[in-house]
């Protein structure tokens, strides 16, 4: 089976994890601090906080910005549900905006029409490792005095016009799930330039606990979103090889692009000169063919594929709560119904991508 994805774990990670386990100091210790410092350097941000998941990162960002019941947050209609779930979890309303087919990110030309007196923030998603149009989003946010929380779950290493994704807004939130370029099993990162917001994340991820005059105090009702030290030890060696990991994914994407060019019913990812795409997912659109039948046929031939992301308004919870119809966000709907994620990553052997494409060509 050619797997869709498989984590790359350097040998040094095994040694570091063993040291942590042997030490008995398992929770948010020296390796979490080291991991945070490495992320700060890599992204050129002053504050990076490790948490339990990308979803936890988004949830903490909402809490730290005091977004609550009655507020609205702009989100793309095509993403993983965690984006909108984080808004729902604080009692606010995720207000959906359709996407572009060019980059599968939020269509910035449609954002302002959805802004109301209740809108508090915009949450762009850098979908599949491709950056959203952050210059447009920043201009809109400034005009309407809105916060920006970047869902950069797939986009560690992505940049837009020379600046790292996740570093434009009030918060950037990353995932370290096993399907991401680097992983700690489950895990996430919150980054910010704001010292006060960083302190709130510190408190919120650890029960609201803080040392004052040498004594432990609890300053607000927080959560247990702490990363373990052995997770951080697993992630550090991967982050140290981040650029090599991205290079492999970009080379594989180029190979796919060249081989799929001759298939007129497959739309490959667009390349933008001002954006660095890290290809957390190599996502194509299947036109004029049954995508689900293709998934099944590839599986029968030993190739694992999957959907790219979800059309939120087509999911039961959001459709029932807000009365959405499938045609309300047509690009999101079509990307959901026609999108296909193909195998990508350092686990692929020579010839695997060519084999995948040859099997796709056999579909009529």
TrEMBL record:
<feature type="modified residue" description="N6-(pyridoxal phosphate)lysine">
    <location>
        <position position="180"/>
    </location>
</feature>
<dbReference type="GO" id="GO:0000271">
    <property type="term" value="P:polysaccharide biosynthetic process"/>
</dbReference>
<dbReference type="InterPro" id="IPR015424">
    <property type="entry name" value="PyrdxlP-dep_Trfase"/>
</dbReference>
<dbReference type="InterPro" id="IPR015422">
    <property type="entry name" value="PyrdxlP-dep_Trfase_small"/>
</dbReference>
<dbReference type="GO" id="GO:0030170">
    <property type="term" value="F:pyridoxal phosphate binding"/>
</dbReference>
<dbReference type="InterPro" id="IPR015421">
    <property type="entry name" value="PyrdxlP-dep_Trfase_major"/>
</dbReference>
<protein>
    <submittedName>
        <fullName>UDP-4-amino-4-deoxy-L-arabinose--oxoglutarate aminotransferase</fullName>
        <ecNumber>2.6.1.87</ecNumber>
    </submittedName>
</protein>
<keyword id="KW-0663">Pyridoxal phosphate</keyword>
<dbReference type="GO" id="GO:0099620">
    <property type="term" value="F:UDP-4-amino-4-deoxy-L-arabinose aminotransferase"/>
</dbReference>
<feature type="active site" description="Proton acceptor">
    <location>
        <position position="180"/>
    </location>
</feature>
<dbReference type="Pfam" id="PF01041">
    <property type="entry name" value="DegT_DnrJ_EryC1"/>
</dbReference>
<keyword id="KW-0808">Transferase</keyword>
<comment type="similarity">
    <text>Belongs to the DegT/DnrJ/EryC1 family.</text>
</comment>
<keyword id="KW-0032">Aminotransferase</keyword>
<dbReference type="InterPro" id="IPR000653">
    <property type="entry name" value="DegT/StrS_aminotransferase"/>
</dbReference>
């Amino acid at each position: 089976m050619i797997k869709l994805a498989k984590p790359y774990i350097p040998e040094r990670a095994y040694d570091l994890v063993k040291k942590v386990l042997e030490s008995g100091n398992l929770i948010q210790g020296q390796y979490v601090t080291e991991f945070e410092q490495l992320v700060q350097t890599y992204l050129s941000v002053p504050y990076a906080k490790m948490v339990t998941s990308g979803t936890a990162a988004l949830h903490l960002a909402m809490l730290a910005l005091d977004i609550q019941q009655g507020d609205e947050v702009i989100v793309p209609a095509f993403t993983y549900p965690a984006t909108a779930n984080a808004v729902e979890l604080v009692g606010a309303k995720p207000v959906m905006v359709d996407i572009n087919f060019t980059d599968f990110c939020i269509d910035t030309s449609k954002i302002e029409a959805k802004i109301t007196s209740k809108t508090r923030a915009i949450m762009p998603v850098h979908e599949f490792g491709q950056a959203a149009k952050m210059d447009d989003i920043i201009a809109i946010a400034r005009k309407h005095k809105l916060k920006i929380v970047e869902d950069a779950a797939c986009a560690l290493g992505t940049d837009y016009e020379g600046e790292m994704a996740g570093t434009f807004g009030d918060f950037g939130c990353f995932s370290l799930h096993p399907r991401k370029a680097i992983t700690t099993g489950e895990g996430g990162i919150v980054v910010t330039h704001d010292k006060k917001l960083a302190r709130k994340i510190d408190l919120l991820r650890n029960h609201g606990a803080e040392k004052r005059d040498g004594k432990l105090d609890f300053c607000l009702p927080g959560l247990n979103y702490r990363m373990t030290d052995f997770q951080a030890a697993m992630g550090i060696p991967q982050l140290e090889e981040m650029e090599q990991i991205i290079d492999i994914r970009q080379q594989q994407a180029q190979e796919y692009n060249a081989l799929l060019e001759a298939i007129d019913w497959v739309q490959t990812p667009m390349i933008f000169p001002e954006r660095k795409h890290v290809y957390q997912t190599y996502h194509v659109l299947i036109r004029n063919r049954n995508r689900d039948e293709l998934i099944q046929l590839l599986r029968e031939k030993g190739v694992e594929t999957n959907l790219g992301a979800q059309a939120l308004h087509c999911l039961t919870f959001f459709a029932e709560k807000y009365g959405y119809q499938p045609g309300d966000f047509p690009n999101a709907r079509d990307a959901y119904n026609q999108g296909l994620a193909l195998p990508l990553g350092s686990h692929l052997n020579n010839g695997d991508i060519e084999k995948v494409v040859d099997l796709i060509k056999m579909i009529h």
